[in-house]
Design a protein that fits this description.
Layout (H helix, E strand, L loop, with lengths): L1 H32 L1 H4 L2 H5 L4 H7 L1 H12 L8 H4 L2 H16 L12
Length: 111
């Protein structure tokens, strides 16, 4: 029985580490690709609720990409949003934005 509980605890810890890794990757992506235009992560991520970010980032961030691609002001980001790198990393960016959304109670440390 002890072995069972130990296995459950190890599995839960491993799962939580994997979630943090994705959030960390999203934070790194934000700093490298978004911070120049949008400023610190707290301001942008905290501008919407978790549900709103999930909707914007649905389908590999298609809505977020379209917002940028339809804005002349966002022209410097067009190459990024038309690149496979964006769709590949959109899940990590979503994890970051949802983790630090307005209603999450969390504050990013990338400001």
């Amino acid at each position: 029985m002890r072995t069972f509980y130990a296995t459950v605890v190890i599995t839960l810890l491993a799962g939580s580490c994997a979630l943090n890794a994705a959030t960390y990757k999203g934070q790194k992506i934000y700093i490298e690709t978004c911070k120049e235009c949008h400023g610190g992560g707290q301001a942008l991520a905290g501008s919407k609720k978790q549900r709103e970010w999930k909707k914007i980032m649905d389908n590999n961030g298609e809505v977020l990409a379209q917002i940028h691609l339809n804005s002349k002001k966002a022209e410097p980001s067009w190459v990024y949003f038309n690149n496979r790198a964006y769709t590949k990393n959109a899940k990590h960016l979503e994890d970051f934005l949802v983790e630090y959304a307005k209603d999450s109670g969390n504050v990013p440390a990338c400001n």
